[in-house]
Specification:
The protein is of the alpha+beta class. Among the domains are: 14-54 and 92-231, no CATH class; 257-400, Barwin-like endoglucanases; 416-534, RNA polymerase Rpb1, domain 3 (Enzyme I, Chain A, domain 2); 540-665, RNA polymerase Rpb1 funnel domain (Topoisomerase I, Chain A, domain 4, Orthogonal Bundle); 854-950, RNA polymerase II/Efflux pump adaptor protein, barrel-sandwich hybrid domain (OB fold (Dihydrolipoamide Acetyltransferase, E2P)), CATH 2.40.50.100. It is built from 42 helices and 46 strands. It has a 6-stranded mixed beta sheet with strand order 9-11-10-13-8-12. It has a 5-stranded antiparallel beta sheet with strand order 31-39-37-34-33, with no helix packed on it. α8 runs antiparallel to α9. The chain starts with 14 loop residues before the first strand and ends in a 17-residue tail after the last helix.
């Protein structure tokens, strides 16, 4: 395509089309709110009428009474012409709009609008003016001129970006853009020709309209009017489509690029590898390391040109393989398994060459990669530069990533066979060969075992660390590989999966990473060895069905028929019957499982002619007990009973599967089972997609949370206390404060000695001390209260969980938080107290019981019942049960608005009884749907139940139930039917109903009272005369996080969000550190809403960044003006990512065209502060080693420094000896 110059100019030289008439840019016209319409104060419809030549617009009224910008229809225009002649100027099409825009002076308009804003009181007007002012301000602040929103020339992108590719058979494939451009050119030329010929107005108008449509389609096809399609009836891809979405420019080419020097292959297990190694096929390595091989060939004088080297490599001569093994030595490669959900999805290993064609992977890193060997593939990448190799070795080596960044616990945990082998090795078998012998050292044990004198599972005495320990042969052998400092008690017990995790964790804390990696490798070797030699198999007789199963099932059937009888007699409702039946079967299932486990976990051994009962060696039990595979729940299905299953809707089917897999299922039972299996698969697919989208949003929000300074010097923090639910400590204080920095010194309440000084980090030893002393709460530095601008400080973040030490500058804590979130995912009122005060209690006695299926409403005084507003047919119906024919009284919604179904307690004379100690009548308002249990004039005693509010039938909860909840919290959505909460503290009284809503009044001791209107039929959660605190719910229902923020402030809100999100994760059994959630919540609270502008540049209702807002207020204060006031704002994560400072980042996230339109009008500058925008521009990210603080260092590699480096642990001599200057 090029004759004289380089061909790359075909990618950079633009052309343009000179348009015969100005055309509106569709982004500024159609992207709501329409910018052109806003500036001209016209509706989008009107602007379009003018542009598409359907109406006239007055450009200059001159002396007439017409208004500038008025829209005239064809008839109105003719009338005006007749009336005023040439004394006014009107027009249609692009020229008219351009002329109108040209007349606008943003400076003058801005002042005029601000004055109007000050004068007006109407809400709608304020909204409209603010919208308009925003656009005007944008033009005022920037160099843009309003008329530039009309195109007079259309740029044409360079030819290589809209290629024309010849296909075989002489045809051409072309980019859609060429079609769209061709259409514009044809119409433009036709319009020019018609104008030169002075064609009739109507034809020119039509042609102008067609030109506008063609340009619209080129810029954004399908946005307006009919979509232009290609020859195959497929919509043409316009310029906007090229940028938008997953396959658009941003996400496909700028954020996800393909990488050279990479390969992929199937993975197989490499049990003989060390933790820092991976097996690499020779063929693959030769291809990947080609440049290094060529270089060495040249150095050795085996080749003089690249071509010659290429030939040698193709022939695969002996020298080539020698050179390859030399080049590969200590040159780390990166392994990656898709999907990369957290940073441990890419790790560095030293390659070990082998002859096969598959990559060999160390079994212990499988957990981190979530890999298995059923055909998974992995990709290999080669870090080329010295800097890249250093980073790979220091930061990404598998031996440096032992802890998980999500919760700080080791992620290199033995699983499956290894666990089985270790468990087998450390179990004691009664009467094994050599039981009871004593040894003077571990070496002696090893010798005895190798010669076959003692069994691996024999109990014996061994002298270890100068102490005689009661142990077994296997445990003594294991203690030999455990590093110094780890107590023998850590291995002197059966090593289950949990125990192994504890051992590895302890080793890491006591002996450090290197010792830990070595221990993990040794454990792996032993585990594989003994799980092989144990010869564990599985057989149908290992599934022992408990003998008592038949009787247990018989009892349950009896109880179910009793409950059915109670229902038939009308004593209980259908809902209660269902709940009770489900309960009985659940308990029966548990009992069968319990009997089964008792039978399977103990076994009889004959030792010296005597029977001994000891833990069983039943293979199924061994697998489950060790944690290698399977669980009690699965054993229960194999040999107990499958139990209750759920329908696809989540309801539990009340007939359980009484059979187990060993007995086999009937057709009906099998059919019920398929629901669950099918739902499981569907859920998994949905979960993956939703969960991926959640991660994407989280990462977008948190990407610019980077550690940028050591100490922000804040004086505020959060008070952290243990998580308690139902009087039980779920999460002890220690787990919440470990590795964080305290704001105020922690002091021993008894001896007054300082345990942790102010601004000191809490380590494991101090946590133990704090828990031992029973300290209830500690004030911590938190990400939420950090004062650092554009980032977070080291002290507020605390420990980097993945390294077990205080965090570093440049750490991307936001990204780590987003990835960690993605990973996983008191006595009730109406209880019957069974114990009198002061009674003796035996262990296991029932102390209180209550009906878990309904919430009661209870009478607080004794007397007679009187109804108020409870009339049959109006507010109450007798619902007759179709099956039993018995009736129950249920409160229904009433047509009339001012009735309030209430039950009163009166004395003999019908006078209302007051509550004891208060002058408030004893009455209960009954909500819609409640079941009345008393009739009028019935005698009641204090504590009797008046009505029951039926609880929802129990549904099964799982992570799909959890994931939407987490998303809902992060998106800060307002829940459906949210509870109304009190904003002040005071006493509750009920007022007269308004518009069918119940009026609750809260009166404080000082100050004015507040009124709240609660929808009719909702259960009011407070009683008359009750004292409420701010933030307390006045009705049943979920809490709205925005209300918590408004009433209780940021700290309370963040505590609420952290607890709610943690609760979902806890239900899934997933451990995730609070600080990750705090990082996200901090980003959600970044903005404030301006409520009064004062003398600042803000507008009312504008959302401003906290730091910008404070800066602007400081500036105004210094000048002696009036600062703005604001209220805190909670934004959902999608909103936050779209409103970031960086328009490049926002455009690559969602709503690309909208973001770019906004950025263009405001002529915004991207300062490239975040990670995404730097990646898109092809720069290094400003985090980690790319942080400006680190960029000042030069890397110089020379012989002397290399030798010293080689002596450091974990660093081999680097393969390159050239002096490499840093690339920055």
């Amino acid at each position: 395509g090029v004759e004289v110059t380089q061909s790359k100019v075909r990618r950079e030289r633009l052309g343009h089309i000179e348009l015969a008439t100005p055309v509106a840019h569709i982004w500024f016209l159609r992207s709501l709110p329409s910018r052109i319409g806003n500036l001209l104060n016209l509706s989008l419809k009107d602007v379009e009428k003018v542009l598409y030549c359907e109406a006239y617009v007055v450009i200059d009224p001159m002396e007439t009474v017409l208004e500038e910008g008025a829209i005239l229809t064809e008839d109105a225009y003719q009338n005006a012409l007749n009336e005023y002649g040439p004394n006014f100027k009107a027009g249609m099409g692009g020229e008219a709009v351009r002329d109108l825009l040209r007349k606008i002076d943003p400076e003058y308009l801005s002042k005029k609008l601000r004055l109007e804003l000050k004068d007006t009181k109407s809400e709608a007007q304020i909204k409209k003016l603010t919208k308009r002012l925003k656009v005007v301000e944008a033009f005022k602040e920037s160099i843009n001129k309003p008329e530039w929103m009309m195109l007079e020339a259309l740029p044409v992108i360079p030819p290589d970006l809209r290629p024309l590719v010849p296909l075989d058979g002489g045809r051409f494939a072309t980019s859609d853009l060429n079609d769209l451009y061709r259409r514009v050119i044809n119409r433009n030329n036709r319009l020019k020709r018609l104008q030169e010929l002075n064609a009739p107005d109507i034809i020119i108008r039509n042609e102008k309209r067609m030109l506008q449509e063609a340009v619209d389609a080129l810029l954004d096809n399908g946005r307006r009017g009919k979509t232009f399609t290609g020859p195959n009836k497929r919509p043409l891809r316009s310029l906007s489509d090229m940028l938008k979405g997953k396959s658009g420019r941003f996400r496909q080419n700028l954020l996800g690029k393909r990488v050279d020097y990479s390969g992929r292959s199937v993975i197989v297990v490499g049990p003989y590898l060390k933790l820092h190694q991976c097996g690499l096929p020779k063929k693959m390595a030769l291809e990947l390391f080609k440049p290094f091989v060529y270089n060495k060939l040249e150095e050795r004088g085996l080749s003089t040109t690249i071509k010659q080297a290429k030939k040698l490599v193709e022939q695969e001569t002996v020298e080539v393989w020698d050179i390859l093994s030399e080049v590969v030595k200590e040159h780390p490669v990166l392994l990656n398994r898709a999907p990369t959900l957290h940073r441990l999805g890419i790790q560095a290993f030293e390659p070990v060459l082998h002859e096969g064609k598959a990559i060999q992977l160390h079994p212990l890193v499988c957990t981190a990669f979530n890999a298995d060997f059923d055909g998974d593939q992995m990709a290999v990448h080669v870090p080329l530069s010295v800097e890249a190799q250093v980073e790979a070795r220091v930061l990404m080596m598998s031996t440096n990533n032992i802890l998980s960044p999500a919760n700080g616990k080791p992620i290199i945990n033995p699983t499956q066979d290894i666990v089985l082998g270790m468990y087998w090795m450390t179990r004691i078998r009664p009467g094994a060969k050599g039981t009871g012998r004593a040894f003077s050292s571990v070496a002696e044990v090893l010798y005895a075992h190798d010669t076959g004198a003692v069994d691996l599972q024999a109990a014996c005495k061994v002298r270890i660390n100068g102490k005689t320990e009661e142990t077994s042969v296997g445990r003594a052998i294991l203690s030999d590989i455990v590093p110094e400092g780890v107590p023998f008690s850590a291995v002197n017990l059966p090593m289950t999966k949990k125990q192994l995790a504890v051992l590895i964790d302890t080793t890491f804390r006591v002996a450090g990473g290197k010792a830990c990696a070595i221990l993990a490798d040794n454990i792996m070797q032993y585990g594989f060895k003994y799980s092989t030699t144990a010869g564990i198999s599985i057989c149908i007789d290992d599934m022992k069905i408990p003998k008592s199963k038949v009787t247990l099932l018989g009892d349950a059937d009896k109880m179910v028929s009793e409950i059915q009888q109670q229902y038939d007699e009308g004593l209980i409702t259908d809902g209660e019957r269902y709940n009770k039946v489900v309960d009985i079967w659940a308990q029966t299932g548990d009992r069968v499982a319990k009997e089964l486990m008792q039978e399977i976990e103990k076994e009889e051994f004959i030792v010296n002619g005597e029977k001994v009962i000891a833990p069983s060696f039943n293979p199924i039990f061994v697998m489950a007990d060790s944690g290698a595979r399977g669980s009690a729940a699965q054993i229960r299905q194999l040999a107990g009973m499958r139990g209750l299953l759920a329908k696809p809707s989540g309801e539990i089917i009340e007939t359980p599967i009484t059979a187990n897999f060993r007995e086999g299922l009937t057709v009906h039972q099998y059919f019920i089972s398929t629901h669950g299996a099918r739902k499981g698969l569907a859920d998994t697919a949905l979960k993956t997609a939703n969960s991926g989208y959640l991660t994407r949003r989280l990462h977008d929000v948190a990407q610019d949370a980077i550690i940028v300074e050591l100490d922000c010097g804040t004086t505020s923090g959060l008070v952290v206390s243990p998580v308690v639910e139902g009087g039980e400590v779920i999460l002890p204080l220690g787990d919440r404060i470990l590795g964080r920095v305290v704001l105020e010194a922690v002091i021993d309440p008894y001896s007054k000695e300082v345990i942790v000084p102010a601004n000191g980090e809490i380590n494991e030893a101090e946590v133990e001390k704090i828990e031992r002393l029973g300290i209830e709460a500690v004030t911590m530095r938190s990400v939420l209260t950090c004062k650092t601008r554009r980032g977070i400080c080291v002290k507020c973040y605390g420990r980097d969980l993945a390294r077990g030490a205080i965090t570093n500058m440049g750490e991307c804590v936001g990204t780590i938080a987003a990835q960690s979130e993605r990973e996983r995912f008191r006595i009730v009122y109406g209880s019957v107290l069974n114990i009198k005060d002061g009674a003796q209690v035996t262990k296991g006695a029932i102390m209180a019981e209550w009906d878990p299926y309904s919430n009661p409403i209870i009478s607080e005084v004794s007397g007679k019942i009187a109804y108020q507003d409870i009339e049959e047919g109006q507010t109450m119906t007798e619902q007759v049960d179709a099956v039993t024919g018995f009736a129950t009284k249920v409160i229904t919604e009433s047509k009339s608005s001012d009735v309030k179904p209430t039950v009163l307690v009166v004395d003999e004379n019908g006078k209302q009884i007051m509550l004891p100690g208060r002058d408030i009548p004893a009455r209960a308002i009954i909500p819609v749907g409640a079941q009345l249990l008393v009739t009028a004039d019935q005698e009641v005693h204090a504590g009797d139940i008046i009505a029951k509010i039926h609880r929802e039938t129990s549904k099964t909860r799982d992570i799909t139930g959890g994931l939407p909840r987490v998303a809902e919290l992060f998106e800060a959505r307002k829940p459906k039917e949210a509870a109304i909460i009190s904003e002040i503290e005071g006493y509750v009284t009920f007022g007269k109903d308004v518009k069918g809503k119940q009026r609750v009044i809260v009166t404080p001791e000082i100050g004015e009272q507040r009124e709240y209107l609660i929808p009719k039929g909702k259960h009011v959660a407070v009683r008359e005369g009750e004292y409420v605190k701010p933030g307390e719910a006045l009705m049943d229902g979920p809490t709205n996080p925005h209300d918590i923020l408004a009433v209780l402030g940021e700290k309370e809100l963040s505590a609420y969000l952290v607890n709610e999100i943690q609760e979902v994760y806890r239900l899934q059994g997933v451990g995730i550190n609070d600080k990750h959630i705090e990082v996200i919540v901090r980003q959600m609270l970044r903005k404030v809403r301006v409520s009064d502008t004062g003398d600042t540049k803000f507008l009312v209702g504008e959302q401003a960044e906290k730091f910008d807002y404070e800066e602007e207020n400081d500036r105004v204060r210094k000048e002696g003006g009036q600062p703005a006031t604001s209220e805190p704002l909670l934004l959902g994560i999608t909103k936050v990512s779209l409103s970031t400072d960086s328009w490049i980042s926002a455009a690559s996230f969602q709503e690309t065209t909208k973001v770019l339109t906004e950025a263009a009008i405001n002529s915004r500058t991207d300062h490239l502060r975040g990670l995404k925008e730097n990646i898109i521009m092809g720069r290094l990210i400003p985090a980690g080693t790319g942080l400006s603080t680190y960029k000042k260092f030069k890397i110089v590699v020379d012989e002397a420094s290399q030798e010293t480096a080689a002596m450091l642990p974990g660093f081999g001599a680097s393969p390159t000896t050239t002096s490499a200057n840093n690339q920055y």
